[in-house]
Amino acid sequence: MKNSQLYKGSLNTIIMKLLEENGKMYGYEITQKVKAITQGELNITEGALYPALHKLEADGFLDVEIEKVDNRMRKYYKLTESGEKETVNRLSELEDFIRNMQSLVNPKLEF
Amino acid sequence: MKNSQLYKGSLNTIIMKLLEENGKMYGYEITQKVKAITQGELNITEGALYPALHKLEADGFLDVEIEKVDNRMRKYYKLTESGEKETVNRLSELEDFIRNMQSLVNPKLEF
DNA sequence: AAACATACATAAGTTTCTTATACATAACAA
DNA sequence: TTGTTATGTATAAGAAACTTATGTATGTTT
């Protein structure tokens, strides 16, 4: 991740959402996609990403498929059925979180 | 805090925003205010709150003023000048964070 | 008398991250 | 041809922010 502590705890949700959207992705691709979408503001580090992917796999939310492209290894991840259900929950939690943060920070707008 | 990991990293920003808005507050008051604003969805635990307040004070962002009300101690915190500046920065970071998360999660809406 | 609310505090442990390092191939620049 | 950048994965040590549990103390409600 980068700069602000705020991103702590959001990495898993980001990964799962991207996989839900794109079917399957490999680690490096995820970092580039996130960088592009956030216009360079969020840079996921390998030290954060790979352990997160391994944990999601160990939890049964992701399946792995290894491919060799241009003589380089790629580990493609995709959501399992369990992972798809979990993604729905996490996205719902994210919406609640954002709504709550906006209520806290912008109380004028809440009613 | 509660449930979702997403709130990790947002506590300091929440505290500082509430202090900016209300002038001075004591710890317990902050927990009740947050609970009320989020309709019970976010419960700040003492184990998270008090160390956070002490650290913000140690960093020079908060001043303390002890009062005794109904024979019970209250430690009122308020932002220092430095704390006010920092609050502006953190709120700006929070806006960026929310915008980035919405871009990641709801790519249809970004353009 | 017991439970709950108010009010603060800390210690042990967990999770999630940062920072640094490591390995390997390919492309490009000096 | 040698160094840098890009692609691609991985782990280990340490920091930071939290959870959970516990402790102290007073006031209020059941």
From TrEMBL, chains A, B:
Give UniProt keywords alphabetically: DNA-binding
Name the source's superkingdom.
Bacteria
Record domain Transcription regulator PadR N-terminal: where: 15-86
Pfam families membership: PadR
InterPro entries reported for this sequence: Metal_resp_DNA-bind_regulator, Tscrpt_reg_PadR_N, WH-like_DNA-bd_sf, WH_DNA-bd_sf
Molecular functions (GO terms): DNA binding
Q: So which residues are the signal peptide here?
A: none
Protein's name in the database: DNA-binding transcriptional regulator, PadR family
Organism this protein belongs to = Flavobacterium glycines
Q: Which taxonomic lineage does the organism of this UniProt entry have?
A: Bacteria, Pseudomonadati, Bacteroidota, Flavobacteriia, Flavobacteriales
